Amino acid sequence: MKAWQVTELGEPARVLRLADVPDLQPGPGQLVVRVRGAAANFPDVLMCRGQYQVKPPLPFTPGVELCGEVVAAGDGVSGLGAGDRVLGSPALPHGGFAEFAVMDANDAFLAPDSLNDAEAASFYIGYQTGWFGLHRRANLQPGETLLVHAAAGGVGSAAIQLGKAAGARVIGVAGGPDKAEVARALGADIVIDRRESDFVEVVKEATDGRGADVIYDPVGGDVYQRSTKCIAFEGRIVVVGFAGGQIQSAALNHALIKNHSIVGLHWGLYTEYDRKRVLECHDALTRLAADGAVKPLVSEELPLEKVADGVQRLADGTTVGRVAYVAQ
């Protein structure tokens, strides 16, 4: 079988190599799936660089999110079998940027019929992260104002749709006119091109000086620091990640003065400690997808041979929505 392999660490375009590797076999509690689609995520970039908290042994195949068809099940697997179309995270080092991948059965969920393979491959991490971030951690309420940074990216685009589905007023921040138009098409009520306008001032003006009730921040660094200037009384800043490359420090005296909360979100811990809630989340998201309230924005579908290029463009910040490998 063919798979992209990382044999040394560095920029994706330099270190990813398409290789012939041995066929996979499922271990106890595992599935082997034929990959039908695999979305590129920023953790794939960080793993190539050796900067992610998960560091698979070299060589490894990245691709942390996929849609696949079950072809074999190991001992102890029940409820899923050959022919089932599933989505979820693969069991590294055998990731999704390959013809076949291995999944732990507990990390595999039936893919919604309402989504095609590329969309289903983009439906797990970003939407689960958004659902837990907005509902579990921030307790977003109808009528509240939600500010979403990196609104045209995979995580941000999911947060816009989930915020609208929850009845919130959504303000999206994106970099450049093309990305701003994507955020607008996703349903954001107000879109800010951060290259043209100061989001702090726009948020204050749009909320009559009150600020945003919830700020969803996958960027970090200066974006987080400036977000504290437009957070509402009793607002919640959800720290999702640090795609901007800088891990910020929180001024706790400011949190005290403004009565706002700084809420961390490590979605992967729910898969480890509270799988029942992950299942509930998947069921809720499947219903939203069936109703048309949410749908991953897949801007590019790539053949296997073009995966390294797509992951590098994600690393460079030039992609919008989701870029996904789709089996031909």
From TrEMBL:
Enzyme nomenclature, EC number: 1.6.5.5
Residue ranges annotated for the Enoyl reductase (ER) domain, each copy included: 13-325
Keyword Oxidoreductase in annotation: yes
CDD domains per the UniProt record, alphabetical: QOR1
Pfam families, sorted: ADH_N, ADH_zinc_N
Keywords on record: Oxidoreductase
Enzyme class, first EC level, given as a word: oxidoreductase
Source species, domain of life: Bacteria
InterPro entries (alphabetical): ADH-like_C, ADH-like_N, ER, GroES-like_sf, NAD(P)-bd_dom_sf, Quin_OxRdtase/zeta-crystal_CS, Zn-ADH-like_protein
GO molecular function terms attached to this record: quinone reductase (NADPH) activity; zinc ion binding
PROSITE patterns xrefs: QOR_ZETA_CRYSTAL
UniProt-recorded name of the protein: NADPH2:quinone reductase
